[in-house]
Design a protein that fits this description.
With 279 residues, the protein is of the alpha+beta class. It has nine helices and seven strands; from the N terminus they run αααααααββαββαβββ. It has helices spanning 3-17, 24-32, 41-59, 62-71, 77-94, 100-112, 116-128, 163-173, 223-226; strands at 138-145, 148-158, 182-185, 197-198, 233-238, 244-253, 263-268. The protein has a seven-stranded antiparallel beta sheet with strand order 4-3-5-6-1-2-7, covered by helices on one side. Strand 1 (138-145) and strand 2 (148-158) form a beta hairpin. Helix 5 runs parallel beside helix 7 (116-128). The protein is elongated and about 70 Å long.
């Protein structure tokens, strides 16, 4: 990023810190402005959202609140996630029950969001506000070891449970001890460490449209942040030493609620012994 871009962003930060209601139209135009290959764009919109949040915090400006809610349907996924983050921060700072309009806007955005970082922030905002997301109650997921495809276990699990619980459910379904580190990868074909969710929390993603700005811990990322549709496949690596790779296929939507603990609903074949392959 060049000097001119840095100066522009610094000027925006300075204007945003003033919390001036007269600048609301500037922030609206900043959020609406999009152009291809705009490296400055995500930071510019982030500044605008922070400025709008400050307006709402200091002046309780209804126009500022309306603009934040509009940002939840922005074309850019990172901007959607940033708007959810600002709303979550405002909720914690104001320390009062969230408005129904805010909850409805977050739920509506989650129902259409396709990018996982945005979904994570939307779900976290709802969780902080004490609201269970209403997009999906539970998912039915078929699991098998990559080199033992005829042995499968099918689980139903609530969308509002951490991936760590799905890990425990898979291990129990195969009769194994959950005594090693593990990672989930939202891909059916490759170990993509840019979107790795692990027990260790060392996965990160950086990009123009999606940004994980914190470690991805399986205790914090929900099943519903990774599972988005039926017939989706992803990978689960258990035991970094022996590298037991599982494939997970989303069979469909279940009938349980969002807090349903992993429940075994079907089983085919005898599970391999956990350490049998290596003596």
């Amino acid at each position: 990023m060049g000097v001119t871009s840095r100066l522009r962003l610094a000027l925006l930060w300075t204007l945003g810190a003033q919390a001036d209601p007269a600048l609301l139209d500037l922030w609206r135009e900043t959020l609406q402005y999009l152009r291809p290959r705009d490296q400055e764009g995500p930071l510019r919109r982030n500044i605008a959202l922070s400025a709008v949040g400050l307006l709402l915090l200091k002046h309780e400006d209804p126009g500022a609140e309306a603009l934040l809610l509009q940002a939840l349907s922005h074309r850019n996924a990172q901007t959607v996630g940033d708007a959810a983050r600002v709303l979550m921060g405002l909720h914690e700072l104001m320390d009062r029950p969230p408005k129904e309009t805010v909850i409805d806007a977050l739920q509506a955005s989650l129902a259409t969001a396709q990018k996982q970082p945005a979904r994570l922030r939307l779900r976290r905002a709802l969780d902080v506000m004490g609201v269970v997301p209403n997009d999906v109650g539970s998912w039915v997921i078929r699991v098998w070891l990559k080199d033992h495809a005829k042995t499968t276990r099918t689980l139903e699990v609530g969308a509002a449970l951490p991936l760590a619980w799905l890990h425990d459910g898979i291990q129990a379904a195969f009769g194994w001890d959950a005594d090693h580190a593990y990672s989930f990868f939202p891909s059916a074909t490759k170990v993509d460490r840019s979107l790795e969710v692990s027990a260790m929390g060392h996965g990160q993603f950086h990009g123009e449209d999606d940004v994980w700005d914190e470690d991805l811990m399986a205790d914090d990322v929900w099943v519903g942040d990774v599972v988005m549709r039926p017939r989706q496949w992803f990978l689960y690596l258990f035991d970094y030493g022996d590298r037991r790779m599982f494939v997970l296929e989303v069979v469909g939507v279940g009938g349980g609620d969002a807090r349903l603990e992993p429940t075994l609903v079907a089983s085919e074949g005898e599970a391999p012994v956990q350490y049998g392959w290596f003596g």
